[in-house]
Amino acid sequence: MNKDNNNLLEEMAKSLPRKLADDIKDHYNVLLKISISLNVEWRKRASWAEQEHRSVSSTVLDDDINNLN
Questions:
Q1: Which parts of this chain are annotated as the region Disordered (predicted)?
Q2: Which residue, 10, 12, 16, 39, has most beta carbons within 10 Å?
Q3: What is the sign, positive or negative, of the torsion defined by CA atoms of 61, 67, 68, 69?
Q4: Which residue, among 36, 33, 39, has the nearest Cα to 60 in the 3D structure?
């Protein structure tokens, strides 16, 4: 991560009580992983129901949150 991105994370951490720059970076990476996963499926032209979207997002988020602990 470059210097400008680190500064952005530090500024975000200042405005979010009880959050460190590393917490924000980790959360961003979780969201990025979800986004990539959904885009891969979209590119496969899979027709997804809303429940399927929730299931994938929830699974990816749960896995990442468990890995942080």
A1: 48-69
A2: 12
A3: positive
A4: 33
Number of H helices, E strands in the chain: 3, 0
Residue tagged 């970076």 (tokens): 25
Q: Where are the domains of the chain?
A: 3-68
Q: Mean pLDDT of successive 10-residue segments in the chain (69 residues)?
A: 74 88 90 86 68 72 61
CA–CA gap between residue 48 and residue 18 (Å, rounded): 36
Query: So what's the pLDDT on residue 61?
Result: 64
Phi, psi of 16 (to 5 degrees): -115, 105
